[in-house]
Amino acid sequence: MTLIELNHAALPVTDLDRSIHFYGELLGLPRLVRPAFSFPGAWFALGQQELHLIARGRSLTTSTEADQHLALRVPDIQAVRQWLNERHIAHQPIKQRPDGAWQLFLQDPDGHWLEFTQIDSKP
Questions:
Q1: DSSP secondary-structure letter at 94?
Q2: Mean pLDDT of 72-79
């Protein structure tokens, strides 16, 4: 078996409209056409990969940033922090990983952790 790349990540959400607003409007991900499944959801482009939101309509258990998250590589972590601050999106402080990369975590409306990471240079 050969793995090529991440194709998509699927996240359960309790309020589909709120999550569509968060990922589409606040984070600026382009919306994709979604096949007509028997359950509600929404798809977004994330570079060459996809993010699939699946409406569950009930509360979800909480998680920490370490056990379940999506990591999104960015060229400038400081610009991400400024962009989030301008939109009043709560986030954790920027910190450095043991390998030298810089990261910033935040939670989406359903408590899913997102990591923004700058790998190439100092912030």
A1: P
A2: 91
Do 1-60 and 61-123 agree at the fold level? yes
Looking at the domain covering 61-123, what would its CATH class be?
alpha beta
Determine the 3-state secondary structure of 8 from DSSP. strand
Which are the contacts of 18, defined by CB distance < 8 A and separation ≥ 6? 109
Q: What is the pTM of this model?
A: 0.70
Residue found under tokens 């790349």: 5
Class level of CATH domain 1-60: alpha beta
Residue ranges of domains in the chain = 1-60, 61-123
Angle at 26 between CA 123 and CA 34, to 5 degrees: 120
pLDDT tops 80 at residue 28 = yes
DSSP-derived letter for residue 25 is I
